[in-house]
Structures are given as C-alpha cells and as structure tokens.
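Reviewers asked in the last cycle whether our approach scales beyond single polypeptides. To address this, we selected a multi-component target totalling 251 residues and predicted its structure end to end. The input consisted of the following lines:
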Amino acid sequence: MTPAPHIRFDVLTIFPGMFTGPLDESIMMRARTQGLIDVQLHDLRDWAHDRHRTVDDYPFGGGAGMVMKPEPLFEAVEAIREMVPEPATVILMSPQGRRLDRALVDELAALPRLLLICGRYEGVDQRVVEHAVDLEVSIGDVVVSGGELPAMLLIDAVSRRIPGVLGSEASLLEESFDDGLLEYPQYTRPPVFRDWEAPPILLSGNHPEVAKWRRRQQLLRTRARRPDLLAAADLTPQERRWLDEQPVEGE
Ligand code: 9D3
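The resulting structure, written as structure tokens, was:
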C-alpha cells in the first residue's frame, strides 16, 4: 500500500492552549486520528533566554507596543525544522501577508510540512521575516489579536484539501462543483415553519426543475452579493443572457 497523503503542521506560539479546542473536535480530530494530518504545538517561550521567559522587547525608534525578539524565534524555527527530516515551509501569520484564498490553500496543501509562526504584540523583528520566513499569510482585511486564530483557520482550510480528510467523495465533489458561484439556499423539514413556506418546487419531486431553480438562485445570489465573482464564474452564454434579463433586486 502506498502511504496516504499527509501533511504536518508545526505551530510556534506563546498560546499553544488556544489550539487544543478546535483541534480536538470534529473533522480536525478525525483527520489527526486517521494520521492524515499531524499538528505539533510549540511554546515559543521554551526558547526564551531568561528566567522570565521573555519573547518581546521595546521597538527601536520608539512607539507603542512591543515587538517579538529575534533570538527565540530563530532558535525555535531551527530546532523545530530539525525535529523531523521533511523540509518545512515557514509561514508567518501576518496582516502584511498574502491573502489566504482557494489558490493559496491548494498550493499549501501540496506541501509536506508547514511551520506556522503566530505573531503577537505589534509584530516581529523584520530580520525574522527576511531570514527565517518563506511566506507571510493574512486572512484578510480584518484586525485580530494575534496569529493564532488565523493559523487555525489556515490549518482547517488546508486540511480539508488533503484527500481523505472529508471522505474522498465529499472533497472530490467540492472540487468538481467549484463553478465559482455562491451556493443555492437550503431548506429542510418542516415544509411550513411559523407561516414561512419552503419553496414548493423543492418538495415537488421534479428533479430537473429543482436543479434549474437552484442554478438560478446561484446566479441571482452571486450577482446580488458577489458580483466580483461573476466574471470568472463558469456560466453558459444562455445563463449570462438569462441573468442580464433579470431585474436587479436587493436579495
Ligand atoms: C497599530 C497597528 N496594529 C493594529 C492595526 C497592527 C497589528 C499588529 C498585530 C494588528 C494586528 C496584529 C495581530 N494580527 C495578526 O497577527 C494577524 C492577522 C490579522 O490581524 N488580520 C488578518 N490576518 C492576520 S494573520 C496574523
């Protein structure tokens, strides 16, 4: 048997306890148990040089906040790299990074090993960025308190692209149904809830009509909420014409 595809995440953080909840539930836990992903947490303070386990210091040039010191970070990255032979791509979670999207997630899922550095304070000494980091990654234009939640989000998104993590059928389905449109609305029982009816077409048993309704919902929703996606989406010329004929409504 050929070994299953596998990815190892090493996480360097001053808050390793933040990761235990998310990693110990649901899909992440199952993927770990199955050996499809391996997540190793490392406390940056283990590489501090003093008995107070200091990892930050005042910024040169003054200003508010603290900066992560280079020595513990460099020594930690070097030590963690050598824990196993697989080559590691070192990623700094950073507001200055490349925005995480589907394309980047797929690039990362093809790598054997990611070492994620979670920044805290105002940032990390730039010499770490220039000499120890391969890639900076951001989750988008929103400010959060540190790199830990962004790193968890990355681990979750990348793990879902490892074959077997979702069950291979579900992930293949995700792949082949990626037409660049938003999804259609979902309904379940009861058919009438507090006077609000589910769309009767969905209860009709007429599967071609259901598929047509869903596709049209996708088109209308995408235009209303994410018109930026339409240019690259997989639409037939007929679908483009149909959409052009539909009145633009707030959805
Ligand atoms: C005074 C300037 N600070 C607030 C705008 C800069 C700042 C420093 C450190 C803001 C946030 C953080 C901590 N955030 C991260 O480490 C982080 C992050 C984010 O805040 N948004 C999106 N992606 C990421 S990845 C890491």
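The chain has ten helices and nine strands. We regard this as preliminary and will revisit it once experimental data from Aim 1 are available.
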